[in-house]
Structure formats: C-alpha cells, structure tokens
Prior knowledge:
Layout: H1 44-59, H2 63-73, H3 83-98, E1 102-124, E2 128-129, E3 153-154, E4 159-167, H4 173-181, E5 190-194, H5 202-209, E6 214-218, H6 221-224, E7 246-247, E8 285-288, H7 290-297, E9 325-346, E10 351-361, H8 369-391, E11 398-405, H9 408-411, H10 413-421, H11 423-429, E12 430-435, E13 440-441, E14 444-449, H12 454-462, H13 473-484, H14 509-515, E15 519-525, H15 540-546, H16 552-570, H17 578-599, H18 601-604, H19 609-634, H20 645-661, H21 694-702, H22 705-725
Parallel strand pairs: 3-7, 4-5, 5-6, 6-8, 10-11, 10-12, 12-15, 13-15
Antiparallel strand pairs: 1-2, 1-9, 4-9, 9-11, 14-15
Helix pairs in contact: 1-16, 2-8, 8-16, 10-14, 12-13, 17-19, 17-21, 19-20, 19-22, 20-22, 21-22
Amino acid sequence: MCRFGVPVLAFCAATAGVTWLSAQASGPGSGQGNAPARIRGFSAASSAAETAREREMKAAPSPKLAEADFDVMTAEPHHTGSPYEIKLADYVADAFKSFGLDATKYEYSVLLPWPGQRRIDIVAPDPIKLQVEEEKIRGDQWADKPGILPAYNAYSPSGDVTGEIVYVNFGIPADYETLQKLGIEVKGKIVLARYGGSWRGIKPKVASEHGAIACIIYSDPHEDGYFQGEVYPDGPFRGWGMIQRGSVMDMPRYPGDPSTPGRPSKPGVERLPMDKIETFAPIPVQPLSYRDGVELLKRLKGPVAPEAWRGALPITYHIGPGPAKVHMSLRMDYGQRRLINVVGRMAGSVAPDEWIIVGSHRDAWTFGASDSVSGHVSMMAVARAMSDMMKKGWRPRRSVLFVSWDGEEQGLLGSTEWVEDLTEELKAKAAVYVNRDAGAGGLNFSSSAVHSLSPFVHELAQSIQPEGQSKTLYDLWLERSREQAPARDGQPPLKTPAVGALGSGSDYTAFLDHVGIPSIDMGLNDRGGDGSYHSTYDNPTWFKKYVDPQFKYSVLAAQVTGVALLRLADAEVLPFDYEAYGGQILEYIAEIELQASHASPDGSKSVDFAGMKAAAEAFAKAGASLRSTGETLLGGGSAPGQMNTAGAMARINRALIMAERDLIEPAGLPDRPWYRHVIYAPGLYTGYGVKTIPGVREAVDSGNYTRAAEQAKIVIRALERAAKTLQPGS
C-alpha cells in the first residue's frame, strides 16, 4: 500500500554531543563494513562481536531461496479472505517453525467488501458502455488465472447515480479552490479525478464535501504510463487498460476493521451497525484505466484545464461540467472475511520482555510481486539467517518477533486488529517496530522513522555497501538527496539525507499512532513511478523482467533489514537519540509558529509557542543527559549510585522505550480519538502524508486558534512527561 503516498518531510536534526563512528565498506562489492570503534549502543568489545555477526548476516541471504519463497507467494491471487491467502498463512507458519521459531496464528473476522456489479455508461452526448474491467494482455499467463479480484475501490458504498462529469484534476482541496475561482460547482455532479497528488481516499471525501454524488478515479499516463516510459509488456509502466485498485477507507480517521474501532475483531466484540460506520467513503467510487478515462475527458467542454491539470492523454483537457453524462451503478458485497496474521517469535536471552518486532504484509490486490511479496521475502530471509545463527550458538539479547500481516491493502486491517488485541502487552514490552512493505527494487534507499531513530537509520545505511558498488547506501542516498535539493544562494550542500516523518499508509500506523511504539519504515527502489501498482500486472513476469531479475535487490533488502534487527536486538543500550528528536520537534514548532504569525498575528499570540519550545528543549536536554550516562556505562565507566552496570543499563533501556509512550494523549486528537500521538499523524486531508504536531498544526491550518492553544497545552504536558521519564534517576 505504501508507495505513491508517503511524502517525505525533509529535516536536518541537530546531533550535538557524542560523535559516533559508523561502519564503512571495506572494499568494492564486499557488502561488508570495517569494524567501527564502537557501534551505537554497543561497548567496544560488543561492537567487535556485533560486526562479526553482521558480516555473517550479510553473507546469508540467497537469491535462490528468495526466488523460491517469491514463487510460492505469488503463484496465485491472494487477497484477504481468498483461499490462497489462507494457504499462505500455513506456508509462513510452517516456514517459521522450520526455522525453529515459536509460530502463532492470530485470526480475526473483519468487515470487508468484495466487488459485485460495477457498470459505468456514458449516456450523453452519445451512448457508450465503458469497459471497467482490467485489460487482459494477450498471451499473459497471469491475467487468465482464476480468482483475480476485479478492479474496485474497497469501502466504497453501493450506489446507482446519474450525473454530468466535472474534471477535478487530483481532487484535493486546492483543486476545488481553483474550481471556485472559475465559477464551477460539483454539487449534484460526478467528479472525475486522476490518481496522484494525494492518497486516493481523499478524493471522494473532498468531492462529497462539495456536494458531488460519485467519484471516478482514473490513471493518467502522465503519472505512471507512457509519459514515464515504455508500457507493459514492452516496459515497466502502466498500459492503456491497466487499473489501480485501492482502498478509499477514511484511514486518517481510523484504520482497521471499520466496525470495531479501538477493539479487535474477534467473536463477541461489539460491532458498529453499518449505518454508524464513519470510515466508509461517503459516495460511490470506482477506478478506471486511462483507456476509459480518455472517453470521459474527450467528451467534456467548458474551460480548458489549467496547465498543471493537464495529463499526457492526446486530447485537450476540459473541466466541464458535461456535456459528458454518465450512469454509474456499483454493488458491493459487504461481509465478514477471515484474516490471519502469523507471528514467529525468537526469545531473547537477556531481556526477553523487550520486543523488537518486524512486519511485512503478505496479502495483495492480485499477485503482489512487488507490493508486498518483495518486502515479505526479505523478512523471511532474515528469519532464516537468524535461525542459522542460533543453531551456531547465538541468541538475541532481546526477543525478535517476525510478523506476516494480512489485510494491509484494504486498510491496515491485520496490524491494527493485532495491536488493538495486544495493546497492554505491547505497551509493556514493544521496544521498536520495523516495517517492511514493498521496496526491493533498486539502490535508492529511503526511510521514515521516529526522529529518535534518525541517527540510527543514517548509520545503518552507512554500514551497507551493495555488491558491485564502490559507495555505501548512505553515500548514494546523500548524492540523490543533494540532486533533488541542490544548494542555492551560496548555501552549503545538504549535510545529511532526510529521514522522513511517519504519516500512514502501512503497518507501522497502529504501533506508533495508537500505542506510542517507536517505528521505522524503509525501502529500496529505483523507479519514480510504478505502472503495475495494484494491478493484475504486479505479477512474477513483470517483476522478474523489470524489477529484480536476479533477486540481488531482494538480497540487499534482507541485508539492510537483518543488520537493523541485529543492532536493535543486541544493543546493550537501545540506539535512541532523544536529543535529535527534541531538535526536530523544535523545528516543527518553529514552522507552525511562522505559519500562525503570518496567517493571524493576533490568533498566534494565544498559542503558547514559548511553552512548547521550552518543553521540547527540556525533552532534548533530558535525552542528551541519558545518552551521556549510557555512553559512560558503555565506555566502562561506573553506574550511578550503588546500581550495577547491568541494572543501570536495564533502567536506561526502560526509560528509552517508555518515553515514546508519554507522547501519547489518551483522549486522542480532535475529531479522531483513535490517533493519539502528539507529534505524528496522517493529515485529515493528506491521507498518507504526515502532519507533525498534528493537533496544533491542523488547528492553525483551519484558523481555529482556540483549539490550537488547547492542543499546545497537551503537547507541553506530553513533552514534560517524556522528559521526566528520560531522567530515571531523578
């Protein structure tokens, strides 16, 4: 789900204090790093042992085994509730058991729609029946497979409507401002939006708020079709008849089973009646290919669309309304579907109740070769490698949990239900969640994370040198970042590549936003667009021809994931940097204050920006002090007071884990209490895109300074709680 929807918010976090020495590659193609003086979180002696383990981990992943797992997992369509998805749960559980892991299935019954009739007929100015179904490319062995889920938008309501078409570009709030300036209304109309610009679920939401009666979303070749390059089967991009499926659930309100917000979907749990559910799309929604989209667009008159609204179809883009008029009939079959998460557990030797969790979803809209079997295969490779290491006598310091999620595509169903099911245990034990969604297709490393883990992510990328490359992933990442954001007006070049802030769109959401578990999302990619995304053609033939023919990127993804898990699982002191976190929060506060002062100088005075800055500074200072104490212990210094070193480290680790929990506001964010984190949330109108310090920022966005002032107080209290937790000796 994650691609095409997680904007990266650039930042440059302050990292004053200790200078960390990172692993650098020892030679071209080796994939190994020189032994650092000390790896973050490890003493000098344990760093040497960790470096040896990482060398073993990097050598373990096998292209042949990766392809074998891949072939099994992509052999049949496997959307949630389908027979093959249920079989794959057994396959993963059996694999975990063969690795020596304790494998457990967690089953839920979730409310999920499957598509019935979907028909769109042009009734004016001339009658034509649109094809609606996805193209079957002649000779493609996968397109004829039984069980492929037809193209639809999950959590659209059923509906039967007729209306004129209005083209709304990407269908985001700014586009409706343009329509208003042109004097064009969509009330009583059917809007036509193109994919891109925002997450798809925002398009029907905003259209409904402006009075539209239905929404059609088509893929324009400008975004991921022939404008980008050759289309499939001659190239990797989207052809005329390929359709992007996808959920239109209002996930910025809450993800997971729409009928059980905040509760796991298990027998006996109270469910909301259908007419009380708030996260269904408010109007009928249907996706189309550009084969059908052009039939609608070429029948529109009215103003010529602004230049930024024009795609790459060989027509003049008009806005309407009409004279194109359509009859749209959708029937959705809502029912309870079987969902199965599989968890493989590797018990820790020193701190078994500190959990490092890694997860990847195995469900797909069709075959899921890239999204997300490529990510899942890399996770399986790490589980296999760690199993082999255990057979040689190693055991992780902390417990490691490998999780195969179900139901991610329709709305993060599996991960959300599991987190809601195990909330109290996760609050007590989960140290970090590492997410592996789609992303094993290139050398372009990227990551989003809680900003206490930004330095960790940088050092992780520095420790990996891809085979055949003379530079590390970090070097390549920094070069790309500098190309994308070149220095201007005599400014120095970018010093570090940006680790993004986490919004939503993948399975880290419930961990971070609902419970306060530090999370990391990361991937590898080389393409700016992905023409097979959520179509029938995200299949093995497409993937092996255009993405990873030799499965070398799958091996690289496993190396990155494996080193990350080893460092998190075995660090004597967890590698959180709350000073960097505090520095980033200060930047966010400054951004919001500047916005508020420009928009409403009087209103901004009611918001205690000074108090937020002071709380963030105290939070950063407490983090720096705790890190310094940890450094002293790792360097062989004495523990504070009469406590032994092991006890002191355990106390520090507990504080480092629990400080993130303190950034959870039990009452939740305004108008969406499921989201509880005061620093990160997806925006109400950005979908996957993050809104940092969301309670304050979104209130300022809307001009509600009374609410902004109230939310600032909540942020101050949360930062003060966390600062206190980071002072375990006080």
